[in-house]
Design a protein that fits this description.
Shape: elongated
CATH topology of the largest domain: Rossmann fold
CATH superfamily of the largest domain: Vaccinia Virus protein VP39
Distance between the termini: 38 Å
Radius of gyration: 23 Å
CATH architecture of the largest domain: 3-Layer(aba) Sandwich
Helix content: 25-40%
Number of strands: 17
Structural class: alpha/beta
Length: 378
């Protein structure tokens, strides 16, 4: 059994939900806003970490100590692999004030100097290391995660590959604001939330981002869209990602209206970011947004109606839009209750939580995504 520290992304509850779905047999404990501690029989590495979209860093636990033992535990973690020469390192803290990092760094440097070890820490202005800074670090980065009186110490073994995200987000041959700009990280989360390793269908595939991320995770994928031109762009993207990343997983793309009969294809789960409506260029009023919500409600009610006719029994992970309006309130779709009345149960994305959805949005976004997981109760 190995114990790992995961540093969660900007939407920590969604990040945690992804981990629960990706590692259903693991034991989770010490969940805080910024991190979670996880025990698993699996050996995790950078390759397995790259399949996750919601976490920033991963470290393997080296010590769990009280505050009085913290300094010695940090020294031991830093020197565990050090051979000779100048020691370069970084330290990042979570669950405790970042202002305490300066005291820790200065104290560590003094102790190393007293042991005749030349050292240099990479923390600029005594701040946590960013993922980009970790990439340029020649030595270890040590994580300190506090929960109550306990301090969890771990050495970073994997970080979010920001260059790979940038490459497949900006270098792919087809990009269009008209069909939405699903972030690759969110697409990864949606794929993982299905909880399956088999084929997944994206019935609103647009430019194919979710299909691409599913392929990168090793899954076979199906994608469909009602727009022929968009589908052609998705095909170019899929061919590009398979070639650029030397993938063996397969994708089938086809034209399909999601409000029509479910295609006779083989897939274990459905995952999608639905149609968000026409792009919003300014914050509208409730009166202005209400017709758009009515249009989208009709679309998704008919889509789920077709799934019920087909008696689809697999997991359905959906990122549906919500809108920010002028009075700073939010307006979501009203079709969720009707979908539930059809017999689709909403599954909690977090164990022992009453929350049946999780939101994903930047502070400045006019349209956010609300993530649901449905399953037909037959």
């Amino acid at each position: 059994m190995s114990t790992y520290l995961f540093i969660l992304g900007k939407d920590p509850r969604l990040s945690l939900a992804e981990l629960y779905a990706a590692y259903p047999d693991a034991l989770f404990h010490e969940f805080e806003d910024a991190f979670v501690v996880m025990d698993t029989s699996n050996k995790l590495n950078q390759a397995t970490f790259d399949r996750l979209g919601g976490v920033l860093k991963m470290g393997e636990l080296s010590a769990q100590v009280e505050k009085s033992e913290l300094s010695q535990a940090l020294i031991e973690a830093l020197l565990s692999d050090h051979q000779s020469g100048k020691l370069q390192y970084g330290v990042s803290v979570y669950g405790l004030p970042e202002g305490e990092l300066k005291t820790l760094l200065i104290g560590l440097k003094k102790r190393l100097k007293s042991a005749s070890i030349s050292s240099r820490f990479a923390n600029q202005n005594f701040k946590n290391l960013s993922v980009a800074q970790k990439k340029g670090l020649k030595g270890p980065e040590i994580l300190i995660c506090q929960s109550g009186t306990q301090y969890f110490i771990g050495k970073v073994t994997a970080t979010q590959d920001i260059d790979a995200y940038s490459k497949r987000d900006y270098d792919k041959p087809f990009r269009s604001m008209k069909v939405g700009m699903l972030p690759p990280k969110l697409a990864q989360i949606l794929v993982n939330l299905t909880g399956v390793e088999g084929a997944i269908w994206d019935p609103f595939c647009g430019g194919g981002v979710l299909v691409m991320e599913g392929l990168l995770s090793g899954r076979d994928m199906l994608g469909s869209d009602i727009n022929t031109r968009t589908l052609e762009g998705a095909q170019r993207n899929v061919e590009w990602v398979r070639q650029e990343f030397n993938l063996s997983s397969q994708a089938e793309l086809f034209e399909h209206d999601a409000t029509h009969l479910v295609p006779q294809k083989k897939f274990e789960a459905i995952a999608f970011e639905g149609y968000l409506g026409v792009p919003q260029t300014r914050m509208g009023s409730e009166r202005e947004i209400r017709p758009l919500i009515s249009e989208l409600d009709r679309l998704y009610i008919e889509f789920f109606h077709q799934l019920k006719i087909a008696q689809f029994k697999g997991s359905i992970v959906a990122a549906l839009p919500f809108f920010r309006v002028r009075d700073r309130a939010e307006m979501g779709l009203t079709c969720i209750n009707e979908i539930r009345e059809m017999g689709f149960e909403l599954e909690s994305l977090l164990p022992q939580s009453r929350s049946l959805s999780l939101k994903y949005a930047r502070a400045d976004q006019l349209v956010g995504r609300e993530v649901f997981r449905f399953k037909l109760n037959l």
